Amino acid sequence: QVQLVESGGGLVEAGGSLRLSCAASGSIWSVDVMGWYRQAPGKQRELVATIDGGGRIHYEDSVKGRFTISRANTKNTVYLQMNSLKPEDTAVYYCYADLAPYGDYRVYDYWGQGTQVTVSS
């Protein structure tokens, strides 16, 4: 069974940094896009950043220049380095992956359980 497991959330002061990690585990044939979304209280889930298998990257405008997404393809792992954090970055961060399970070979969306990031002012 495929699952995404996140780590690295926590509480940090404004201006601080956190690094999130997400590892896809299980019987995996291939992984295409991986990324991060976030959902603040009372708001819709929004895209933060994505990276595809070729290394093409997309950032949401509010995090450009502060967040960096990267991945380790051999480990099916995606990272989000978050610098210069602001209180408005406070949210539950969800890892996301488009991947094909071994034996199925069709691409499905998978989500992690979410990790809380809280930035104090």
Write the topology of this structure.
Blueprint: E1 3-7, E2 10-13, E3 18-25, E4 28-39, E5 46-51, E6 57-59, E7 67-72, E8 77-82, E9 91-101, E10 108-111, E11 115-120
Protein model, in words:
- This protein has strands at 3-7, 10-13, 18-25, 28-39, 46-51, 57-59, 67-72, 77-82, 91-101, 108-111, 115-120.
- It has 121 residues and is mainly beta.
- Strands 2, 4, 5, 6, 9, 10 and 11 form a seven-stranded mixed β-sheet that branches. A four-stranded antiparallel β-sheet has the order 1-3-8-7, with no helix packed on it.
- Strand 7 and strand 8 form a beta hairpin.
Average of the residue pLDDT scores: 96
Poorly predicted runs of 5 or more residues: none
Main sheet makeup: 7 strands, mixed
Give the overall shape: elongated
State which percent range the strand residues make up: over 45%
Number of strands: 11
The whole-angstrom Rg is 14 Å
How far apart are the termini?
40 Å
Q: What is the string of helix and strand elements?
A: EEEEEEEEEEE
Helical content (DSSP H or I, runs of 4+): under 10%
Number of helices: 0
Q: Structural class from helices and strands?
A: mainly beta
